[in-house]
Design brief:
The chain is α+β, with helices and mostly antiparallel strands. It has a single domain (about 30-520), classed as Cytochrome p450 (Orthogonal Bundle). The chain contains 20 helices and 12 strands. A 5-stranded mixed beta sheet has the order 1-2-8-5-3. Strands 4-12-9 form a 3-stranded antiparallel beta sheet. Helix 6 runs antiparallel to helix 12 (about 230-250) and helix 11 packs across helix 12. The protein is globular, with a radius of gyration of 26 Å. The relative contact order is 0.15. The chain binds protoporphyrin IX containing FE. The site of protoporphyrin IX containing FE has 23 residues, from helix 15 and helix 20.
Length: about 525
């Protein structure tokens, strides 16, 4: 039989072609909706609620302008006449768009709307009173890979389960037992780098580099206890791993780039495998009871119960691996940042340096290491640490995501919108802190000091259920380290120092922090 065209093949072909066209149309329509129509609809929605911001640009959102503002700001140091007025440099995009669009405004992170909220009252709603409507923001896969799938990156029930397991490990009474170890570590650091090199004279040290050793050693001991030496190897590799993350974060993100077998990527994969292998071996030993110690360490850690012994009975090997990666990541750069800025601020304000030193000598003596009983008596030092965290919060912002449509300050925030809370902007706000908001004045944190009483005016460690679990550890380390440095040296900024705080995940000095120490 002959047909003018190859029936039934032509029917099938036509149907297939039509289906392919339909799929293509649907895919293109969806893509266009995600990248163009939805952002425009959301823009109009927010405008109706009086919330405006830089207009949405196809695919890139506000990213190109944001990067331009940040790069431009980082090309100039902070103004010498107001050195602590660093918000326009650190969060240049916030500073710029706030002037144009008001305190609550919106920007576009690609095609995702990001609402900027900097009123303490609204932040309180997001973190505390209406926290169930907001979820922790999903970090980029590259950052998650380095940070580890630990507390910082978990959600819902799994986060709650882990937080419950880990909370007792970070109890202040447990952590206080670390004080002698922290003191000995800082004493060794001083002897090796400052006291011996200075030999009666002066020595210049880049404190942004130098301080890194303390959190690294403290987290290693707190996590691994008696198995500190094995832990050190893991965390040394993790240090290298994290340095690639910081480097990657400072570059423009290219989707899929991390899967290419470049020299650096191959090293990152190798490090990842090695860290997992070592931690896996260690954890399996710990869980089968075939390990040296774990539990209470009566040696270096003065009887502190290490984090491993809280995790081993309750978590799988993989979970422990991810959690330890997370501790290392969350605890190292943040503390280094705090110590660096406190030292820089004290070098700039010698009156506070002298006052804090007198207190340290009164409480701890001319030579002795600080003890856990000394710490609450170091009031001036506590005020200095708080004032540093206010002006130079290591984590400059927090991000949440609306789980569902939710009312915030009279604006209906659609599900999926990200909420960015710029910690540094709240800390520098003259309406919250008064006319001297950008001056270094630790006295505002005195018991009878004049400071805002509203919740979330001061939140260097975040707030609500997801408040920093490591804050007690950080404050212990910071007080002991600064007390020892003050007790044994006078210091001032090197002429080579340029005051240029910038944020690369964590707030750090763009050109390092060279400080001149003179042993006392
Ligand atoms: C000066 C030092 C530190 C600062 C300023 C700091 C700041 C913060 C902030 C702001 C958050 C909340 C993030 C958010 O809600 O989005 C946070 C969470 C967290 N921090 Fe810290 N941190 C410091 C030290 C540490 C240390 C020493 C550790 C542990 C070893 C640590 C572990 C964590 C963890 C695990 C979380 C996630 C908690 C959760 O989501 O349940 N931090 N930190």
């Amino acid at each position: 039989m002959w047909w003018p065209w190859p029936w039934p093949w032509s029917w099938q072909g036509t149907a297939l072609t039509a289906a392919a066209w339909l799929c293509l149309h649907v895919a293109v329509a969806r893509l266009m909706d995600a990248l163009w129509w939805r952002p425009r609809r959301l823009e109009r929605h927010f405008a109706r609620h009086g919330v405006r911001g830089p207009g949405y640009r196809f695919f890139f959102g506000s990213s190109i302008e944001l990067i331009r503002l940040m790069v431009d700001a980082s090309s100039r140091p902070a103004p010498p006449e107001a050195p602590h007025d660093v918000l326009p440099r650190v969060l240049a995009f916030y500073h710029h768009w706030r002037k144009l669009y008001g305190q609550m405004h919106m920007i576009w992170f690609g095609s995702t709307p990001r609402l900027i909220v900097s009123e303490p009252e609204l932040i309180r709603e997001v973190l505390l009173s209406r926290a169930e409507h907001f979820d922790r923001y999903e970090a980029h896969p590259l950052i998650r890979q380095f940070e580890g799938l630990g507390l910082s990156n978990l959600h819902g029930d799994e986060w709650a389960r882990r937080r419950k397991i880990l909370t007792p490990a970070f109890h202040v009474e447990n952590l206080k037992l670390l004080v002698p170890f922290v003191g000995e570590t800082v004493q060794r650091m001083l002897e090796e780098r400052v006291l011996s090199s200075a030999a009666g004279g002066e020595v210049e040290v880049d404190v942004a580099e130098w301080y890194q050793r303390l959190p690294q050693e403290a987290i290693t001991l707190a996590t691994f206890g008696r198995n500190y030496d094995e832990g050190s190897v893991v965390f040394r590799l993790q240090g290298e791993h994290a340095s690639y993350a910081t480097e990657a974060h400072s570059k423009v993100f290219m989707p899929g780039y991390r899967f290419l077998p470049t020299r650096k990527n191959r090293r990152v994969w190798q490090l990842d495998r090695e860290i997992r292998r070592l931690l896996g071996k260690f954890v399996t030993g710990l869980q089968s009871g075939d390990h040296r110690g774990g539990g209470r360490d009566h040696g270096r850690a003065g009887g502190m119960k290490d984090f491993m012994s809280f995790m081993a009975p309750a978590m799988t090997a993989d979970e422990i691996i991810e959690e330890s990666k997370n501790f290392f990541f969350a605890g190292k750069e943040t503390l280094t940042s705090l110590l660096t800025w406190a030292t820089v601020a004290l070098a700039m304000h010698s009156e506070w340096q002298d006052r804090a030193r007198r207190e340290v000598v009164d409480v701890c003596g001319r030579r002795g290491l600080p003890t856990k009983d000394h710490l609450p008596r170091l009031k001036t030092l506590g005020m200095i640490v708080n004032e540093t965290l206010r002006l130079y919060p290591p984590a400059v912002a927090m991000i949440r995501k609306a789980k569902r449509d939710v009312d915030l300050g009279g604006c209906v925030v659609p599900a999926g919108t990200e909420i960015m809370m710029p910690i540094m902007a709240v800390h520098h706000d003259a309406e919250v802190w008064g006319a001297d908001a950008t001056e270094f004045n630790p006295a505002r944190f005195a018991d009878d000091g004049d400071r805002p009483r509203q919740q979330m005016a001061f939140m260097p460690f975040g707030g609500g259920g997801r408040v920093c679990i490591g804050q007690n550890l950080a404050l212990i380390e910071a007080k002991v380290a600064l007390a020892l440095v003050l007790q044994q040296c006078e210091f001032r900024l090197s002429p080579a120092y340029v005051h240029a705080p910038r944020v690369l995940m964590i707030l750090n000095p763009q050109h390092g922090a060279p400080v001149i120490f003179r042993p006392l």
